[in-house]
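Recall that a protein's primary structure is simply its ordered list of amino acids. Everything else, from secondary elements to tertiary packing, is in principle encoded there. The following example makes that idea concrete.
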Amino acid sequence: MGDNMHDKCAAEFGKSAGWVWWFSAVPIVVNLITLGLIGASIYGAQKMNQLCRTISTSAQRLACTAVRIGVGESARAALAEHAKTKPELEPLSK
Protein backbone atom coordinates (compact mmCIF):
# COMPACT_ATOMS: atom_id res chain seq x y z
CA MET A 1 0.00 0.00 0.00
CA GLY A 2 2.88 2.38 0.77
CA ASP A 3 4.45 1.83 -2.64
CA ASN A 4 1.14 2.47 -4.38
CA MET A 5 0.71 5.72 -2.45
CA HIS A 6 4.28 6.74 -3.36
CA ASP A 7 3.64 6.09 -7.06
CA LYS A 8 0.37 8.01 -6.91
CA CYS A 9 2.09 10.93 -5.19
CA ALA A 10 4.94 10.91 -7.71
CA ALA A 11 2.47 10.89 -10.60
CA GLU A 12 0.56 13.83 -9.13
CA PHE A 13 3.81 15.69 -8.49
CA GLY A 14 4.87 15.02 -12.07
CA LYS A 15 1.64 16.56 -13.34
CA SER A 16 1.95 19.57 -11.08
CA ALA A 17 5.65 19.94 -11.92
CA GLY A 18 4.66 20.30 -15.55
CA TRP A 19 2.29 23.11 -14.63
CA VAL A 20 4.92 24.73 -12.41
CA TRP A 21 7.34 24.67 -15.34
CA TRP A 22 4.69 26.22 -17.60
CA PHE A 23 3.84 28.96 -15.11
CA SER A 24 7.50 29.77 -14.54
CA ALA A 25 8.30 29.77 -18.28
CA VAL A 26 5.46 32.10 -19.30
CA PRO A 27 6.68 35.14 -17.30
CA ILE A 28 10.22 34.62 -18.56
CA VAL A 29 9.02 34.53 -22.17
CA VAL A 30 6.79 37.58 -21.60
CA ASN A 31 9.72 39.45 -20.02
CA LEU A 32 11.99 38.56 -22.93
CA ILE A 33 9.38 39.76 -25.42
CA THR A 34 8.90 42.97 -23.42
CA LEU A 35 12.65 43.60 -23.27
CA GLY A 36 12.88 42.93 -26.99
CA LEU A 37 10.11 45.44 -27.71
CA ILE A 38 11.75 48.04 -25.46
CA GLY A 39 15.08 47.46 -27.19
CA ALA A 40 13.46 47.73 -30.62
CA SER A 41 11.72 50.95 -29.56
CA ILE A 42 14.98 52.50 -28.37
CA TYR A 43 16.80 51.39 -31.53
CA GLY A 44 13.96 52.72 -33.70
CA ALA A 45 13.92 56.02 -31.82
CA GLN A 46 17.66 56.44 -32.33
CA LYS A 47 17.37 55.68 -36.05
CA MET A 48 14.41 58.08 -36.38
CA ASN A 49 16.36 60.78 -34.54
CA GLN A 50 19.32 60.24 -36.88
CA LEU A 51 17.01 60.37 -39.90
CA CYS A 52 15.41 63.59 -38.63
CA ARG A 53 18.85 65.14 -38.15
CA THR A 54 19.81 64.15 -41.69
CA ILE A 55 16.58 65.57 -43.10
CA SER A 56 17.05 68.73 -41.03
CA THR A 57 20.61 69.15 -42.30
CA SER A 58 19.46 68.56 -45.87
CA ALA A 59 16.65 71.08 -45.44
CA GLN A 60 19.10 73.64 -44.05
CA ARG A 61 21.45 73.07 -46.98
CA LEU A 62 18.55 73.43 -49.39
CA ALA A 63 17.43 76.64 -47.69
CA CYS A 64 20.97 78.06 -47.78
CA THR A 65 21.28 77.17 -51.46
CA ALA A 66 17.95 78.84 -52.18
CA VAL A 67 19.09 81.98 -50.35
CA ARG A 68 22.37 81.98 -52.28
CA ILE A 69 20.50 81.60 -55.56
CA GLY A 70 18.08 84.33 -54.53
CA VAL A 71 20.89 86.67 -53.52
CA GLY A 72 22.75 85.81 -56.70
CA GLU A 73 19.69 86.61 -58.81
CA SER A 74 19.17 89.88 -56.94
CA ALA A 75 22.82 90.80 -57.43
CA ARG A 76 22.63 89.97 -61.14
CA ALA A 77 19.49 92.06 -61.52
CA ALA A 78 21.12 94.96 -59.66
CA LEU A 79 24.27 94.73 -61.77
CA ALA A 80 22.23 94.53 -64.97
CA GLU A 81 20.29 97.63 -63.90
CA HIS A 82 23.56 99.36 -63.06
CA ALA A 83 24.99 98.32 -66.45
CA LYS A 84 22.10 100.10 -68.17
CA THR A 85 23.10 103.36 -66.53
CA LYS A 86 26.84 102.76 -67.02
CA PRO A 87 27.34 101.31 -70.51
CA GLU A 88 31.07 100.73 -69.95
CA LEU A 89 30.26 97.76 -67.67
CA GLU A 90 29.82 94.44 -69.42
CA PRO A 91 26.43 92.83 -68.70
CA LEU A 92 26.52 89.52 -66.81
CA SER A 93 23.82 87.72 -68.76
CA LYS A 94 24.54 87.04 -72.40
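The chain is about 90% helix and 0% strand. The radius of gyration is 39 Å.
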